[in-house]
Structure formats: structure tokens, C-alpha cells
Amino acid sequence: MSKHPYNYGATASTDVGFMGKRSPEFNNLCDNVVTNIYTINSSLKTLDNALKTIGTRKDNQGLRSSIHVTQLSTNQIASVTSKDIHKLKQLVSKSEKQQQLQVEKLEENFKEAITRYYSLQKDLANKQKSHLLVSVSIENDYLPEEDTELQRQAQLAREMAFEKDMLVEREARIKQIEADVLDVNEIMRELGSLVHAQGETIDTIENSIDHATGNVEEATEQLMTAASYQNKYRRKLLFLVLIGLAIIVTIIIILVVELKK
After folding, report:
1. b/e per residue 61-86 (b: at least 16 CB within 10 A)
2. Based on the number of CB atoms within 10 Å of its own CB, is 54 exposed (0-12), middle (13-18) or buried (19 or more)?
3. Cβ distance 151 to 143 under 8 Å?
4. Which of the two ends of the chain, N or C, has the fewest CB atoms closer than 10 A to its terminal CB?
5. Are 32 and 105 in contact (CB under 8 A)?
6. At what angle do helices 97-130 and 61-91 cross, to 10 degrees?
7. Alpha carbons 234 and 245: distance in angstroms, whole number
8. CA gap 148, 146 in Å, rounded
9. Do 78 and 182 contact (CB within 8 A), yes or no?
10. CB–CB of 33/85 below 8 Å?
11. 109: Cβ–Cβ under 8 A, 6 or more apart, which residues?
């Protein structure tokens, strides 16, 4: 039997220990995520012990029912935890670096726990299907001993009914075993959906900033061009004024000279 290097009880990794101003909702969500990760790790220990028992003398229907209930509960916890982490990402702003790091650490711990849980679930499903337990009752109809032909036909009918019931129950149990396996891909998609949305938002903001920067630069260039034109216009105007003054002075001088004659 293969050994699984699962680190089930390591809850210290979930204690991220960041300080800072945090809202009550943020604190509650963080506490819930930490508790849920601890619960998932505890379920891993329980399921790993069950995996070692399947196929042995201690294997029974009670053990299989316990595995089913544990997986259903853990699947529900995983789904809730995914949603809580999603909410945490929405609460944290880009400027709150410490809270961002805290949420990232919680998400990393959750993904590690879910990955181990999914791997163990697949091992459980395969082993349960290879050591499938079925319980089909056989009714023993009483027939007189002398009716041997009737007994033979009745026995044949019971065997056929038994085989049919076994196939039906076997199929139902296999479907239940497969249904218990968590859709970890869906969990990962839920965790990554907000990151994708945030990325698109950041890209939009960056594009807006670039666009605004381009507009500012363009406006600055236009102002500089306008200022240059204005300076040239002022120089031309001053030059024309000086020429005009020179002409006026020249005319006055000519007039004065003519009057003195």
C-alpha cells in the first residue's frame, strides 16, 4: 500500500500573524477561513485512516457511511471557504499591503489543503470501488421437497434476481463514491475568477492613466507651442512699433527742418 506524505495537523502555517487596522468583517472572515482549513486538515487525518482500513477485516458498511458523511461535510466546508476568501479579496484594497499578504497566505494554505484532500479522495474512491461492499437480501421461499423442479426454477429465479439487484446496487454505490469527490477545479476557478476581474480592472486603470498622461503631455506641448507663438507675435509687434516710431521721428525731423527754412 502506498504511503501518502500528507501533513495533516500542520495548522501553524495558517497563522499568518499580520497586524494592522482591520474591519470586523475582515477579522471574522479570516477567523472562519483559518478554522475551516484546520477542519479540512482534520478530515484528511480521518479519511487517511479510513483508507488504510478499506479491504481489511475492519472494513464494513459503517466505515463506508462514515467516509461518505465526512466527505460531504468537508466538501461543504471547502465551498464556503472558497467564497469567504473571495469576499476577503473584495474587501482588501490595493493600498493595504499587509492585508493583501494575509489573504494571499490564507489562500495558499487553503489551496494546499484542498489539493491534498482531492488526491486522497481519488485514492479513497479507487480503493472503495475495488473493494465494493454490497448487501442484497435473498428471500428463501419454502417449497415441498418433492417438488424438485419447482425448487430448481425458484432457485434459478432467486439467483437471477440477486444478480440483478447486485448490479443495481453496485452501480448506485459507484455513483455515490464518484459523486463524493470534490470538484477541485471548480474551487480553483472560483478563487481565480476575482484575480482575473481585478487584473482587468487594473489594466483599465492603467490604460486610463496612460491615456490621461498622454492628454497632459499633449496639452503641455500645445501650451508651449502657443507660448512660443505668443512670444514671436510680441517680438514682431514690438519691432513694428519701433519701426513706426522711427518713421514718425524721421517725419518730425524733416518737418522741423523744412519749417526752419
Report:
1. eebbeebbebbeebbebbeebbebbb
2. buried
3. yes
4. C
5. no
6. 160
7. 16
8. 6
9. yes
10. yes
11. 13, 14, 37
Residue count (the chain): 261
Q: Which amino acid is at 177?
A: I
CA distances from 30 to 24, 44, 77 (A): 10, 21, 14
Contacts (Cβ under 8 Å, ≥6 apart) of 194: 86, 89, 90
Nearest residue to 122 via CA among 248, 4, 240, 244: 4
Task: Provide the CB-side half-sphere exposure for 225 (13 A, CA).
Answer: 6
Q: Helix, strand, coil proportions of the chain in percent (round to 5)?
A: 80, 0, 20
- Give the pTM: 0.60
Q: Looking up cell 497563522, which residue turns up?
A: 15
- 68 vs 85: CA distance, rounded Å: 26
- Sign for the CA dihedral angle at 8, 9, 11, 12 comes to negative
Contact 9, 82 (CB under 8 A): no
pLDDT of residue 162: 67
Looking at residue 102, its pLDDT comes to 93
Among candidate residues 48, 49, 47, 118, the one with its CA nearest the CA of residue 78: 118
CA distance 135 to 214: 76
Mean pLDDT by 10 residues, the chain (261 residues): 48 45 86 96 96 94 94 94 92 84 94 94 93 64 59 74 71 86 83 56 49 58 68 70 75 74 65
Rg, the chain, Cα only? 42
